[in-house]
User: Fold this.
Amino acid sequence: MLIDLSGKVAFVTGGSKGIGKSIVEALVASGACVAVMAREQGDLDALVVHLNEQRPGSVLGVVGDVSSPEQVAAAVDATEKRFGALHLAVNNAGVAGSAGLLHDTGHDNWRHVMGINLDGVAWSMMAELPAMLRAGRGAIVNIASVEGHTVLPGFPAYVASKHALIGLTKATAADYAAHGIRINSVSPGVIATPLTMAPGQKEVTDRLAARIPLGRIGTGEDIASTVAFLLSDLSAYTTGADFVVDGAYLLRE
Ligand SMILES: NC(=O)c1ccc[n+]([C@@H]2O[C@H](COP(=O)([O-])OP(=O)(O)OC[C@H]3O[C@@H](n4cnc5c(N)ncnc54)[C@H](O)[C@@H]3O)[C@@H](O)[C@H]2O)c1
Assistant:
């Protein structure tokens, strides 16, 4: 990868597998030091050990849940203590929730999806932004979805959370531009990850993949390279934008 992030410190949520893991790998390969927050200790430990073998001391793992403001604040704090000033953040952790009509999926499913996909990003940014203000500049990428532009039938909470996340990205981009902090979102299309390949979900994935004009499901690396670009100075004049990375999936709606 040609993007140079050496000397930069990054914080990535949901980075132990799937798209988040690809993002962490890309940022480490670009020279950044990366703190990775995820819920599951096992996957996280394996990734941290592996990447620190490649570049010693470059990765910190922090177990935590983004739906807890206290846990995210503690993770950002641990990042600054370990690596110094925070420059970059990727708010990637997200869940699809249960499939069904709104009245069938229930209050708990709604709160679960919103609590991670929308509140979790807001709590993360509330911790990251003061750290970036202390650093004097920053760049944030929120991982939205093509379902923030269209609808995936049977997933109303997910669709609503991703539409709202793009709105949150634009609102904060406008508010923090004068402080030297750029905030963009990336909207992946259908990407092969544990989330989309899970039992019960794979059928939905296969149905969606059949109509992608570029002729294939996307990879985590497809998303990670766009994220790295948006975190780098190559995109210095870009803020408040949403980058759709979907093989033209949305054009087939
Ligand atoms: N895979 C796709 O096709 C696709 C498409 C569009 C958008 N997205 C978005 O990309 C992001 C990543 O999706 P993925 O497919 O890689 O998912 P995944 O399930 O494969 O991985 C999700 C990661 O997030 C972490 N996570 C989940 N809930 C968390 C929480 N409460 N606190 C901390 N970490 C948490 C998990 O531990 C894991 O590391 C999500 O925001 C998702 O909505 C994915």
